[in-house]
Design a protein that fits this description.
Elements (H helix, E strand, L loop, with lengths): L4 H43 L15 H10 L3 H14 L2 H14 L16 H11 L5 H11 L6 H13 L3 H14 L12 H18 L3 E3 L5 E3 L13 H9 L1 H11 L6 H16 L1 H11 L7 H14 L4 H15 L3 H14 L4 H4 L5 H16 L1
Antiparallel strand pairs: 1-2
Helix pairs in contact: 1-2, 1-3, 1-4, 3-4, 4-6, 5-6, 7-8, 10-12, 10-15, 11-12, 11-15, 11-16, 12-13, 13-14, 15-16, 15-18, 16-18
Amino acid sequence: MQHTKGTVALVVLGMMITLAWGSSEDTAVSAMRVRLAELGRAVIEEAEGRAPKQNGPPYERTPSAEGLYQLSRAPREPVRQAIEEVLRNGSKEERIGALVLYGWIVGKNYGAFQEEPLYPSYLPVIYVLLAQDDRKLPAYTGALTGALWLYPMSRETILVYMDIAEHTSDPKTREDYILVTASSLGIELPIHKQTPPLEKQKILADFETWFAKNKKYIAFDEKGRSLLAGSKVHVRPRALRAEDRQKIRQDPVCVLRLMQASIGEPCSEETVRELVKKCGEAIYGAEAAALVARGLDTPQDSSEAAMDLQLAAARVQGKYPVTDAVLLAVAYIAAYDNDPKSRELARISLDQFGSPDIPRVLRGEPKVVHEKMEELGDEVLKD
């Protein structure tokens, strides 16, 4: 086939444009990798206490915070490509920067920058990198395990955490990973700031012994909720029944107060007892509420019996739609409660537990409940 000079010129020009575009893309990704490495170095320096101390006010962003601020607003396609590249064949500094940025941009930011979805394809890569990690750079290990925390908890993640705890020479690292593991299983170890060092070591050792004995039974559902392998707990918790909804409507404020106490909001033991007695069944279901009440009467120590009871309570709660109960309580406060303290509690709870499941949870409820819940959601987004 014969081409005219004009046709040949157009073909050559097209090839040049294509090559230039490809080159431009490669350059953008390469530049992004350099910025990720800079962020990684800043994270390492801050973790090792080598970063410059901040003076203020007025306060300035730390180097890592500034890096996150700038990268979260950078064109997203080169960011995605750079993260994928460094996870496959990057340096430790690049990977630290990539994983810290990844955790930042998949978090809820209320429109401050473009949110990124959670990529399931990254998870097996992170497990491989952890298996290859020599654990000589804590900031690198921490970036990898921190990225695992973005995904629903799993048996594989728990085993990684406990392996790090078992083999680290740093007491603080061991304590941190054991506490995260226990918390993920629904077990609260009785360690506080005032706990004597020897007692703390005994509590941690008791948990390690308990975990070694029970790890073959530990499993999680697809949402990261703890349960026991071989148990009769359904993977999908049942929906709220009419009687559950009625219990929640009776005292939605109690439901939210008990939820806040459950996730660590300061509250006296006597108050928790009263809340469990008053609305425990509304938020946990009858079986779990009974176990929680029994747990309040059990010595809060690191004994095997105490840990078994806590795990049982967490496991049973996995059968009951706790988050749905919280969202329904929020909606009823939004619709019918004008008390400022109650509404603030509802706003806090919606911020913590809000989900795309709200329309499903409110199906069948009065129109005003839907409307007021939507208005409260708009308030939360503006805050």
